[in-house]
Design a protein that fits this description.
Blueprint: E1 3-6, H1 10-16, H2 31-40, H3 45-61, H4 75-84, E2 91-97, E3 103-109, E4 118-127, E5 130-134, E6 138-139, E7 157-158, H5 161-174, E8 198-201, H6 211-221, E9 234-238, H7 242-252, E10 255-259, H8 265-271, H9 280-288, E11 299-305, H10 313-322, E12 328-334, H11 348-360, H12 391-403
Parallel strand pairs: 5-8, 8-9, 9-10, 10-11, 11-12
Antiparallel strand pairs: 1-2, 2-3, 3-4, 4-5, 6-7
Helix pairs in contact: 2-3, 5-6, 6-7, 7-9, 10-11
The chain binds S-adenosyl-L-homocysteine and iron/sulfur cluster.
S-adenosyl-L-homocysteine is lined by residues 145, 147-149, 202, 205-206, 237-239, 259, 302, 304, 333, 335-336, 379-380.
């Protein structure tokens, strides 16, 4: 059964909101910035590095969200930090749990110039041997890919590094994925190891149009003395912002996924309009230059299957041709329809035929099985409160999906 927990009563929440004062957040700061914060509360210079290391450990290894839990930090310093800064988690407005174990959280962040608080969704997908968290980088998107629901929403604002990391911290809180925490009864999580073992920047927004904040967040997520996620288990998905692909390779070093979706410029201009600025040739050149590629470290090419649009064998052939020489995985995504979308998902046989062709050409090409359908957690359907569907729309979409395609 789908389970929905409305964690905070809306009226109470709205009544409380205006009273809340925003203090600067310590999550998302670099070590140097953390040392500056310690300076601001009077920690002498000779202690700053040691104290910064202590804080880092509490924030990212132990996952505390209240200064009072930092036992080896003096009471006075805890009080001084608490007066000036915050380490609180964002508000979780709603948590939904699908019957297949997929979880979706609706989180609320302060306006930060956007006029009103913003809400974003984060999705957790447990599988055998791994647990993947799908993280958002922006509220809305400036780009307008024609098959993507997020693309119909204007950009409301970029998320800060703190807000990007908060999605990971909240998921780890709720799954008991910090030391000395319990996993909730009945939760579906990997049998061994971390509950959140992988992250993908595949939620709302174009991460490379929020480069600095995404970079800071991912460098903290992969820091070996803190959250310690291997860069090989972090994947950043981009629609193809070519200059920032080079920078991602040099400055972040995580795995790359490219939202390809079409293999000819004419069609890609229509589906992924950023292609007009950075056409396929330039995109593929940046991919070829991505540092550290090998058979064990391949770029993922995402390809949404749109009936009669990009799903012919001719497209499959051209795909294999343009990927020649790039260590690549191809991720075929059954199109997730949304109310008002102009596309249909390809038939299952067509998807299989396409997958067989690229498999035979030597590329792994898993077809992404839709997960968490009952809680609408699929790609391209993450959205903010302002765009939440009316109940009737939701039911129509669920019916369409249940009748539909994709599941073997
Ligand atoms: N903006 C980034 C990351 C977010 S989108 C990007 O475009 O790569 C994550 C993936 O879901 C992208 O490959 C996107 O093209 C795909 N997607 C968007 N809408 C979809 C839909 N309705 N059905 C299936 N996949 C979709
Ligand atoms: Fe933005 Fe990615 Fe959606 Fe395109 S597919 S509109 S880049 S979120």
């Amino acid at each position: 059964m789908t389970q929905t927990l409305d964690l905070i009563d809306t009226r109470r929440r709205d009544a409380l909101a205006p009273a809340r004062q925003e203090k600067p957040h310590l999550i998302g700061l670099t070590r140097e910035e953390l040392a500056d914060a310690l300076e601001a509360v009077g920690v002498p210079e000779r202690q700053r590095r040691m104290r910064a290391r202590q804080l880092w450990h509490w924030l990212y290894v132990r996952g505390v969200s209240d200064f009072s839990e930092m036992f080896n930090v003096s009471k006075d310093l805890r009080a001084a930090l608490g007066q000036t800064f915050t380490i609180a988690r964002p508000e979780i407005v709603e948590e939904q749990i699908s019957k297949d174990g997929t979880r979706k959280w609706l989180m609320r962040f302060p306006p930060r110039g956007a006029g009103r608080p913003v809400e974003i969704e984060t999705v957790y997908i447990p599988e055998e041997g791994r647990g993947t968290l799908c993280i958002s980088s922006q509220v809305g998107c400036t780009l307008t890919c024609s098959f993507c629901h997020t693309g119909t929403q204007k950009l409301v604002r970029n998320l800060t590094a703190e807000e990007i990391l908060a999605q990971l911290l909240v998921a780890r809180d709720r799954l008991g994925d910090f030391p000395d925490r319990d996993t909730p009864d009945g939760a579906i999580v990997p049998a061994e190891g971390r509950k959140v073992s992988n992250i993908v920047m595949m939620g709302m927004g174009e991460p490379l149009y929020n480069f600095e904040q995404v970079k800071n967040a991912l460098l903290i997520a992969s820091d070996g003395e803190g959250l310690s996620l291997s860069k090989r288990r972090i994947t950043l998905s981009t629609s193809g912002v070519v200059p920032e692909i080079y920078r991602t390779g040099e400055e972040i070093g995580v795995m790359l996924a490219i939202s390809l979706h079409a293999v000819r410029n004419e069609l890609r201009n229509e589906l992924v309009p950023i292609n007009k600025k950075y056409p396929l040739e330039e995109l593929m050149k940046a991919c070829r230059a991505y540092p550290g590629l090998s058979n064990a470290r391949r770029i993922t090419f995402e390809y949404v299957m749109l009936k009669g649009v990009n799903d012919s064998l001719d497209d499959a052939r051209e795909l294999v041709r343009i990927l020649k020489g790039v260590p690549a995985k191809i991720n075929l995504i059954p199109f997730n329809p949304w109310p008002g979308s102009n596309y249909e998902c390809s038939d299952w046989e067509t998807i299989e035929r396409f997958a067989d062709y690229v498999n035979n050409a030597g590329y792994a090409s898993p077809i992404r099985t839709p997960r968490g359908r009952d809680i609408l957690a699929a790609c391209g359907q993450l959205k903010s409160e302002s765009e939440r569907m009316r109940k009737t729309e939701r039911l129509a979409l669920e019916a369409m999906m249940n009748a539909g395609h994709g599941e073997a």
